[in-house]
Design brief:
The complex is a heterodimer of chains A (113) and B (113).
Chain A (H helix, E strand, L loop, with lengths): L2 E3 L4 E5 L4 E3 L2 E3 L5 E7 L5 E7 L5 E3 L5 E5 L4 E6 L8 E8 L7 E2 L3 E6 L1
Parallel strand pairs in A: 2-12
Antiparallel strand pairs in A: 1-4, 3-9, 5-6, 5-10, 7-8, 8-9, 10-11, 10-12
Chain B lengths: L3 E4 L2 E4 L5 E7 L5 E7 L5 E9 L2 E4 L6 E3 L9 E3 L8 E8 L8 E2 L3 E5 L1
Parallel strand pairs in B: 2-11
Antiparallel strand pairs in B: 1-3, 3-8, 4-5, 4-9, 5-6, 7-8, 9-10, 9-11
The chains are: A mainly beta (113), B mainly beta (113).
């Protein structure tokens, strides 16, 4: 069965510290992987996506993610967190053409001064 | 600017009433989706449509109905049969012709009073 697991419900990091949000997926075919960010009461904005090729993908706002097939993981990273990064982050997996994309439960990021 | 517009942003409904949420897109996307978001549960797919005049049930379709009479529009009706309709509803669309991500509207928060 297809699934996405984000093990951390919430994470708190200090401003300027590095960040890693974990994502593990289960998918029978070649996965298409996404990270989205959501501010309170807003829609979701795409941070980055992986379809094929280089397993380290760069996204907007200084985020990057690494696809590790052997670990079924697609962790999101940022070297230095800014207060404006406080939001909820969703990992998602989909098949060809993005139909029936499956979302994880989300990780809420808190940033402390 | 191209995008997805959901209206209204906030909606209040009395128990026993049907209510319709609007979703319009001008991205020329073939596929459109409705998701429900509850705290700690990620996004759950209600209905999706790959083409005009066709739509499919998602994982939690009971108590909801949709129509797709125009490519640009995919309204969602929350019926009185939906036992727990208070939630945040997100509409999304994607291209059917390319492997690509879903684009999201800003959401509608429905509250049953």
């Amino acid at each position: 069965a297809q699934s996405v697991t984000q093990p951390d419900i919430h994470i708190t990091v200090s401003e300027g510290a590095s960040l890693e949000l974990r994502c593990n997926y289960s998918y029978g075919a070649t996965p298409y992987l996404f990270w989205y960010v959501q501010s309170p009461g807003q829609g979701l904005q795409l941070l980055l996506k992986y379809f094929s090729g280089d397993t380290l993908v760069q996204g907007i706002k200084g985020f990057e993610a690494e696809f590790k097939r052997s670990q079924s993981s697609f962790n999101l990273r940022k070297p230095s967190v800014h207060w404006s990064d406080a939001a909820e982050y969703f990992c998602a997996v989909g098949g060809r053409r993005g139909f029936k994309t499956i979302f994880g439960a989300g990780t809420r990021l808190f940033v402390k001064a | 600017d191209g995008g997805i517009t959901q209206s209204p942003k906030y909606l209040f409904r009395k128990e026993g009433q049907n209510v319709t949420l609007s979703c319009e897109q001008n991205l020329n996307h073939d596929a459109m989706y409705w998701y429900r978001q509850d705290p700690g549960q990620g996004l759950r797919l209600i209905y999706y449509s790959q083409i005009v005049n066709d739509f499919q049930k998602g994982d939690i379709a009971e108590g909801y109905s949709v129509s797709r009479e125009k490519k640009e529009s995919f309204p969602l009706t929350v019926t009185s049969a939906q036992k727990n309709p208070t939630a945040f509803y997100l509409c999304a669309s994607s291209s059917r012709d390319r492997n690509t991500e879903a684009f999201f509207g800003q959401g509608t928060r429905l509250t049953v009073v």
